Amino acid sequence: MRRFAPIALAVAAPFLLGQAAPKLVPDVSNRAVEIRYSFTGADLLLFGAILYPGGRTPNRPADVAVVLRGPVQPIVLREKQKIAGIWMNADSNRFRSAPSFYSVASSRPLPDLIDERTAAVYELGLENLQLSPGGGAQPDKARRFEAGLLDLKRRAGLYSENPSGVEISEGVLYRARIFIPSQVPVGTYTAETFLIDRGKVLAVATKEIEVSQAGVERSIGIAARRYSLLYGLAAVLLSLGLGWGAAALFRRRL
After folding, report:
1. Rounded CA gap, 174 and 182, in Å?
2. DSSP of the chain, one letter per residue?
């Protein structure tokens, strides 16, 4: 019977380790964000608790990183150059699946928490996003366009990093605020919480958040998708009408 003891311990080890690992209990302040005509952005609170085995907080509590990620979408980025005194589209690159929104907050700077390999595996940090550039691009060109995409998204408020954005109380309660700007696309967003200790990710937990249009904006969006041709014609006619009206008013004042 003794020779079966090591086998039994080997089989039971994963379960014992699983029970000994800390767990995350996350939540969000609002699981549904509605975009209306008066929407100017929203502060989203991501909070939760860290459950340590036996209910005992270690002398050196773990750190927390929170990521809010929007739905992925293909993006074509164009580079302009001044040719013969005129700014023109000189080159372009396509990204197959770039996140439409990405914001990460952590209790300490990410380089102090994890190494580059672990950060790349979990896509923690803007420099570790898997942007999936289109095939055929030279490495130098791909890096240049990736840097350009990150810069554009940052300036639009759609990509951000906050190395001190997570507050941890008593080693067990955490919270972070992430701002959602008014121009975010609709869809299902994922809030991921990472528990990190000594360079290792101990636990990961996720929550989903729905960002949707409401009111008149929702009706217009549905009409644009269902009747795209009529919607386009109506938009053109409206633009022509407004232009003609402005020109007529200007002539009368003269």
Report:
1. 26
2. -GGGHHHHHHHHHHHHHHHHS-EEEEEES-SEEEE-TT---EEEEEEEEEE-GGGPPPSSPPEEEEEEEPPEEEEEEEEEEEETTEEEEEEEEEEEEEES-EEEEESS-HHHHS-HHHHHHHT-SGGG----BPTT--HHHHHHHHHHHHHHHHHTTSEEEETT-EEEETTTEEEEEEEE-TTPPPEEEEEEEEEEETTEEEEEEEEEEEEEE-THHHHHHHHHHHTHHHHHHHHHHHHHHHHHHHHHHHHHH-
Question: 165-205: per-residue pLDDT in tens?
Answer: 999 999 999 999 999 998 888 999 999 999 999 999 999 99
Residue 200: name the closest of 21, 33, 9, 5 by CA. 21
What is the C-alpha separation between 234 and 205, in angstroms, rounded?
Answer: 46
Selected residue with higher pLDDT from 68 and 220: 68
Cα dihedral across residues 135, 192, 158, 224: positive or negative: positive
The token duo for 119 is: 């950060």
Q: Are the C-beta atoms of residues 1 and 180 closer than 8 Å to each other?
A: no
Q: CA–CA separation, 56 vs 23, rounded Å?
A: 13
In this predicted structure, the answer to whether residue 217 has a pLDDT above a threshold of 70 is: no
Question: Which segment, 93-102, 126-135, 214-223, is predicted with the most confidence on average?
Answer: 93-102
Q: What whole-number distance in Å separates Cα of residue 61 and Cα of residue 207?
A: 23
